[in-house]
Amino acid sequence: MVRKIVLSLVLAAFFSMTHAQGVNYQVIPLPQTITLTQAKPFTLQNGTAVVYRGQDEEMNRNASFLTGYLKDVTGLTVTVSNQKEKRGDIVLVLDKKIKGDESYHISVTNKNILVSGKTATGVFYGIQTLRKSLAGVNKDAQIAFPSVEINDSPRFAYRGMMLDCGRHFFPVSFVKEFIDLLALHNMNVFHWHLTDDQGWRIEIKKYPQLTQIGSIRKKTIIGHNSDIDDGTPYGGFYTQEDAKAIVEYARQRHIKVIPEIDMPGHMVAALATFPELGCTGGPYEVGYAWGVYSDVLCLGNEKTYTFVQDVIDELIQIFPAKEFHIGGDETPTERWIDCPKCQALAKKLGTEPKHLQSYFTNRMEQYLNSKGRTIIGWDEILEGKINQSATIMSWRGVENGNKAAHLGHDVIMAPNEFAYFDHYQTNKTNNEPMAIGGYLPVEKVYSFDPAPDSLSADAKRHILGAQANLWTEYIPYPQQAEYMLLPRMAAMAEVQWVPTSKKDFKAFTDRLNRLVKIYDQKGYVYALQLWPDRYNANRQRW
């Protein structure tokens, strides 16, 4: 009799292991605390309801996201309800006792799964953790969530990615996919680089010529340091309705969109449209080569400020984010030195023409402040006297960011050494798609610490967070963009979310093995250098 009972228990356990698939809470980014408990697991079934309390529109949407994720991964049909929860439901709750707007708590028992947050945003990140915990399960299998208590919150408030659509235009569908990737990796800022020398990509109704002329270049240079071009016109732009739809798409995923109009340099596409805004009067043509152009906005011409302010006026109606990125990088000064209008302005200000950028920056900041906005600029805007209220995005290494923090500026760390995803992912570049240069493997991204202990406590307080950038001179297609983003984006996600003391690259790669199953499910193209066998096999097929 005893033998029969033991045999039955063994068979039951075997049956359970072979027919039920457990989830794994070791996800990316890694939650702060994961405490498994002794309670029985929660079993996900057809007909499980995701319940939210009240009539909150954001919580309703969160519930819909979760049901969609669960169906995508498991094939099970899960419903949404705002009725009183019952045993077997997944419950989403707003809890004011939780500290931090982006913090969340997950409690799993055999009765229910409870996801709570102070705000709907926190609940959303809890949902992402549940979603990622399912990576790799088989559709239509019985899904068992081990009983657990998870408490989590991000290290940094600003967790961003930048997409350059100035050099190459990406369709709205890919921009939305990019936002989905941000959500998957717990990022909350989409920095959208909308203009550059090689293309003006956003509709301005007062100046339709900007997209009629400035969005199209006659040709594009092929290769590095080349004088060979493809001879093919290239263009594209986003209507204001496109932009509004993208902003809303991001908002629904708890992501804000910060637009960038790069100025006073990187404005040749605008000058090709309105040559009177340049120091020489032109003629200019939309840039077709990469690099830095000498022609910039004429800062001694009042028409320049009218133009820029008109552009700002339209864009702040589309982008509700408090922040507005004014660029400010790589601005040559030789045109100002030779320009009578700029000379006259410099004399009036008691400075030299080459120092006029700080005047421009401060004037733009004052204008944006008058509209209830604040400015972000690349770290070059530190080269002159600017208001302390300007936020610095440090791309030329971490030193400029540290300097800005010590000066009392808020700082976003985006150094090219750790955060430029247009760089090669391997030093063996022959089998790689063409990139701008450099070498940035996943491990180096992961090693980045935006606010090390070597900084003073006061300086650390000014480090808002970190951002990775995808510049697109050599990235013309969505699939290539995916390849350059992934899996480095996962490494940056941990830099942004996880305390340095909890980071471990080997453990990260183990967790990444599961996350890429979601990449596979979604059909994303990603780099395979961390999986040499797969990498070499893929190259052989090419």
Main sheet summary: 8 strands, parallel
The number of distinct β-strands equals 24
| CATH class (first level) name of the largest domain | Alpha Beta
Number of helices: 19
Strand content: 15-25%
Query: How far from one another are the termini?
Result: 62 Å
Number of domains: 2
Spatial ordering of strands, largest sheet: 17-12-11-24-21-20-19-18
Q: CATH topology of the largest domain, what is it called?
A: TIM Barrel
How does the helix and strand content classify structurally? alpha/beta
Rg, nearest Å: 26 Å
Keywords:
single chain, about 550 residues, alpha/beta, Chitobiase, domain 2, TIM Barrel, 2 domains, 19 helices, globular, disordered N terminus
Q: What can you see in these coordinates?
A:
The chain is an alpha/beta fold. The chain has two domains: 134 residues, Chitobiase/beta-hexosaminidase domain 2-like (Chitobiase, domain 2, 2-Layer Sandwich), CATH 3.30.379; 384 residues, Alpha-Beta Barrel (TIM Barrel). It has an eight-stranded parallel β-sheet. It is globular, with a radius of gyration of 26 Å. The termini are far apart.
